[in-house]
């Protein structure tokens, strides 16, 4: 009888430890999303994105926040790994942009991380260049 009880307690402990390990590695340390390989949830012009945020930031967050979106607009500023579209959409790339994009119309795919009220910009990260329309 005592042997069955001990075996039962050991089995319960193994199940609990296994569940703990699964939770620890399966939920807490998930791999980051690969935005470059995801299909965009939305495809909109940069001007529409900023209009939506200026009109109603909460509603725009519900539509765009943490979603993969494709933005089209004219490059107004470019640094090593940052491109700004239409003076209002801040796009952070994972790598330096090699092409000179200033004043070109481009399409960028990235994850919307929100609206910066201080700079009045919508911010995207993990961006990739989809199209360049000279």
Quick overview of this protein structure:
The chain has 134 residues and is α/β, with parallel strands linked by helices. It is built from three helices and six strands, in the order αβααβββββ.
Describe this structure in words.
By secondary structure, this protein is an alpha/beta fold. It contains three helices and six strands, in the order αβααβββββ. The protein has a five-stranded mixed barrel with strand order 2-3-4-6-5. A hairpin with a 3-residue loop joins strand 2 and strand 3. The longest helix is centred in the first third of the chain and has 27 residues. 21% of the residues are buried. The mean pLDDT is 87.
H/E element order: HEHHEEEEE
Helix/strand structural class:
alpha/beta
Per DSSP E runs of 2 or more residues, the count of β-strands stands at 6
Share of helix among residues?
Answer: 25-40%
Oligomer: single chain
Ranges where pLDDT stays below 50 over 5 or more residues in a row are none
Which percent range describes the beta-strand content?
A: 35-45%
Major beta-sheet overview: 5 strands, mixed, barrel
Query: How would you describe the shape?
Result: elongated
- Give the termini distance in whole angstroms: 81 Å
Tally of alpha and pi helices = 3
Q: Roughly how many Å is the radius of gyration?
A: 23 Å
What strand order characterises the main sheet?
Answer: 2-3-4-6-5
Mean pLDDT: 87
């Amino acid at each position: 009888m005592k042997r069955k009880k001990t075996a039962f307690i050991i089995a319960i402990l193994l199940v609990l430890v296994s569940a703990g390990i699964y939770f620890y590695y399966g939920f807490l340390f998930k791999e980051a999303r690969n935005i470059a390989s995801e299909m965009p949830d939305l495809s909109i012009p940069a001007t529409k994105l900023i209009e939506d945020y200026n009109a109603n930031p909460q509603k725009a967050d519900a539509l765009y926040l943490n979603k993969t979106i494709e933005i089209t607009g004219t490059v107004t500023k470019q640094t090593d790994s940052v491109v700004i579209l239409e003076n209002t959409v801040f796009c952070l790339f994972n790598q330096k942009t090699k092409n000179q994009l200033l004043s070109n119309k481009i399409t960028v795919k990235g994850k919307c991380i929100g609206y910066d009220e201080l700079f009045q910009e919508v911010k995207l990260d993990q961006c990739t260049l989809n199209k360049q329309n000279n």
